Backbone:
């Protein structure tokens, strides 16, 4: 198993390095990530490479049996490069140039930057391609983090024009697809097209806005490919990854992941959700990352202490670091690297705490990581590579998410909230889920859920029809089929491309503001929860209603429907259901689709249940997210692997405790 830390030897005196490596080895650490922010140390001046310090660090680590993931340092171009080529700086949508002093301040499309990137990556690859202690590469760092993808400089303007010409071929085709006759925006040449920057009335053509997001994502993918091609050519035996950001959405990470050898995630439970940390949010980020390549992944940065830039976020309580680590493993992480080894004494992240505090002496976080590593060294060989064997797929569509960012249609709601509403239902009901793209194999699942699938991607409706006719179950919901793939409205009766599959016609609709709801009923429940966000007035032409509105002018009309299509069923939810409504509606769907939850363990809400399964064994994780002990029930005697003891009947799980059970499949 790969168990390690992010390490910055350049931040510390060389005489400290042997002690660091010794302490790492004593804590069970066998891999570190190095180098992703070290460009100015590696190339102080143009063409003057200094690898000796890195060579020495690798040698010291190797002596303790510690291997290395090398980061290409392109997230932090040095000042001498920026002074030589100030056009490399990103420019925001108001024309403000982002200056030096942070990171990721470069434009993906700048040709001058590409030259320097090729030089440093080639030099590193040639030096370390055959280094026996370098086991992998990480390209750059956190693409799409902190609004660093969409650039509005002149290089991006030219590149966007070329991207559009390649896509549309003819300018009149673009005019037709975007509908530029509106507001007198007809273009006579691709060179006339501006970027959708800030205007007095900041509402651009929706087709242009969506294409600019597609272009910006493609730019990041191509920038990664520039480095990927070098690494694969020069160092073909060393796998390559990038540390992604889960639910961050500036870049389509399905595209970004395609040519990577494996996906990686940076996870900080007490940072991203600091107001009220919710383990379901962290679980979603983990499952999303597993879905990028539909394979297990690495956690390249794992929270180890209180994060902080100018302010501190909550300090992990004793046991939380171990608990978070097991949650990552439970959802498919085959490697864990904590961020960071030692808390830095200077720079913008002096309050971003690592396993060691500022003084460099081991404390409770170091001891907790060491204990966790010892346990995982015993457990991971048993479960490495095993998946959740989920029967449910939630489809994440970046382009539909971007479309709803461009035109949210309601003040408070966002695409991610709808996706999360489904995810939380499955999590709460102990049902494993894959979060995958609309290019996945639908037939691998019993149930496919497509939140807010507003734009119908060409071919998807036909694939869903074949899948459903063969016995699959589909759930679509509000706004499905409203638009074409170019982000213009479909003039077909709603729900557009999905009307035949769903067997309904939507005759009216409206928004519900924050705090508003409409009561819904089912055959079994007079009050089955409430509809929020939106309501569709549905004519169930061929479908069967499964829920009805209980109030307002649509009272008594269907709020949700089921359509028998071939051997399967297609469901439509005409409201954004609250948790009670989701329980009622999705409960009917799961029962019909024979979706099976984890049944080996029964646990209270604070105890998460997750699964990794093979052909002969299942491994059930019980993770107590509460600060107090909880009691769980076992359906049959099972071996608890961490303690190596048989448990049966009831068992008490400590505060922030973890059990890993195994049972025959």
Residues:
């Amino acid at each position: 198993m790969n168990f390690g830390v992010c390490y910055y030897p350049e931040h510390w005196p060389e005489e400290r390095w042997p002690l660091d490596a010794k302490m790492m080895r004593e804590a069970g650490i066998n891999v570190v990530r190095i180098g992703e922010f070290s460009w100015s140390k590696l190339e102080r001046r143009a063409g003057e490479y200094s690898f000796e310090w890195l060579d020495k660090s690798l040698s010291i680590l190797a002596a303790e049996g510690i291997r290395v993931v090398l980061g290409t340092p392109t997230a932090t171009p040095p000042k001498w490069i920026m002074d030589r080529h100030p056009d490399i700086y990103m420019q925001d949508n108001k024309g403000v140039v982002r200056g030096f002093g942070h990171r990721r301040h470069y434009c993906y499309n700048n040709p001058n930057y590409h030259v320097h990137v090729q030089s440093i990556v080639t030099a590193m690859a040639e030096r370390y391609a055959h280094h026996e202690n370098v086991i992998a590469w990480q390209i750059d760092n956190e693409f799409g983090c902190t609004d660093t993808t969409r650039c509005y400089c002149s290089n991006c303007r030219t590149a966007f024009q070329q991207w559009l010409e390649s896509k549309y071929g003819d300018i009149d085709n673009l005019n037709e697809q975007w509908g530029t006759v509106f507001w007198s925006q007809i273009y006579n040449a691709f060179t006339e097209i501006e970027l959708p920057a800030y205007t007095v009335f900041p509402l651009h053509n929706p087709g242009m806005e969506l294409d600019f997001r597609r272009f910006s994502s493609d730019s990041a993918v191509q920038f990664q490919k520039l480095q990927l091609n070098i690494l694969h050519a020069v160092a073909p035996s060393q796998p390559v990854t990038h540390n992604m950001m889960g639910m961050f959405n500036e870049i389509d990470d399905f595209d970004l992941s395609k040519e990577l050898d494996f996906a990686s995630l940076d996870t900080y439970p007490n940072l991203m959700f600091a107001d009220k940390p919710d383990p379901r949010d962290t679980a979603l980020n983990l499952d999303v990352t597993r879905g990028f390549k539909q394979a297990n992944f690495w956690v390249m940065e794992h929270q180890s202490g209180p994060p902080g830039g100018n302010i501190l976020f909550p300090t992990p309580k004793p046991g939380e670091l171990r608990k978070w680590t097991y949650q990552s493993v439970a959802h498919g992480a085959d490697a864990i690297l904590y961020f960071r080894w030692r808390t830095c004494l200077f720079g913008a992240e002096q309050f971003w705490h690592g396993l060691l505090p500022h003084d460099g002496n081991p404390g409770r976080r170091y001891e907790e990581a060491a204990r966790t590593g010892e346990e995982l060294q015993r457990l991971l060989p048993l479960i490495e590579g095993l998946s959740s064997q989920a029967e449910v797929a939630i489809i994440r569509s970046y382009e539909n998410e971007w479309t709803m960012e461009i035109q949210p249609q309601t003040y408070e709601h966002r695409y991610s909230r709808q996706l999360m509403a489904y995810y939380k239902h499955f999590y709460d009901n102990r049902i494993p889920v894959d979060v995958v793209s609309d290019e996945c194999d639908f037939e691998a699942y019993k149930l496919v859920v497509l939140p807010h699938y507003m734009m119908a991607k060409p071919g998807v409706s036909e694939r869903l029809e074949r899948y459903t006719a063969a016995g699959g179950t589909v759930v679509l919901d509000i706004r499905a089929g409203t638009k074409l793939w170019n982000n213009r409205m479909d003039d077909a009766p709603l729900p557009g491309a999905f009307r035949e599959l769903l067997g309904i016609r939507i005759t009216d609709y409206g928004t519900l503001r924050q705090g508003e709801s409409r009561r819904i009923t089912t055959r079994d429940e007079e009050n089955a929860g409430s509809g929020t966000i939106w309501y569709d007035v549905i004519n169930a032409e061929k479908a069967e209603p499964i829920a009805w509105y209980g109030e307002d002018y649509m009272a008594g009309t269907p709020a949700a429907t089921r359509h028998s299509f071939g051997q399967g069923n297609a469901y439509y939810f005409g409201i954004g259901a609250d948790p009670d409504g989701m329980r009622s509606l999705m409960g009917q769907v799961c029962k019909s689709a024979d979706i099976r939850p984890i049944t080996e363990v029964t646990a209270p809400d604070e105890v998460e249940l997750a699964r990794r399964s093979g052909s002969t064994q299942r491994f059930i994780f019980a993770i107590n997210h509460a600060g107090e002990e909880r009691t769980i029930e076992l359906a049959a005697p099972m071996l608890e692997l961490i303690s190596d003891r048989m448990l049966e009947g009831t068992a008490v799980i400590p505060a922030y405790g973890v059990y890993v059970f195994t049972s025959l499949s």
About this structure: Residues 206-234 form the longest helix (29 residues). The chain has a mean pLDDT of 96. The chain has three domains: 2-84+118-151+218-383, 392-593, 601-664. The first strand starts at residue 2 and ends at 6.
